[in-house]
Amino acid sequence: MTINTILVPQGSEYMAVCRGLSRVTGKTPKIIPVPVGNKPLTKYLQQLPKQEYSTGYLQPKVLVMGLCGSLTPQYHVGDVVLYESCISQEQLQVCDSAFTTEIHSALKTHYPTLKLVKSLTSDRVICSALEKRHLGKTLAADVVDMEGFATLEYFNGSDVAVAMLRVVSDDCHHNIPDITAAINPDGSLQPLSLGLRFLSQPIAAARLIQGSLRGLKVLEEVTKSLVAEF
């Protein structure tokens, strides 16, 4: 099995994956930092030269990595999940089943509880625990992110196989700060705006930071474990 390219949200998630790759000897996949959010990511992918992810390969394999939020009590902070599909506005996109099975097989020894999940891709941060659980029940979704659907929508129908591996960084039992307004139209974060929102909800912010740090550490470890299998 080969992973040609890893797409990961820019910032701390990208740096965590880079740290994981730095701990692997030999050849590693190309890693590309991408914007946060469906619309910025779609625009970015449309402008990304095809040779960035497909040069020399009959069927390029692109792995999306990063953090996600739980929508059900079944998944907790630090859990590693492998996507089966993504939904957005009642539309469904499915990950490449063969590539996903290969990823699962490569990780089953290190992560025996690794499960396939259905993700909701949202255009905003779902900050209310009540809303998370409601969305989980009504949409039959397990986790939520902001990039999965756009990636699948762009690559599906092409010759690119896509799989998605993420780590849960916030659960469905606690609120987190609403940081949607701190995300720029280009998918980057506004540090000052982010800090102000954290200050306005210090307890929720502390919980989010703690969960993110734990999730990032697991993201680094799972990157190392996966790539070392090749």
TrEMBL record:
Entries under InterPro entries matching the protein: Nucleoside_phosphorylase_d, Nucleoside_phosphorylase_sf
Organism: Nostoc parmelioides FACHB-3921
Pfam family, one: PNP_UDP_1
Protein name: Phosphorylase
Segments forming a coiled coil: none
Residues in Nucleoside phosphorylase domain copies: 61-172
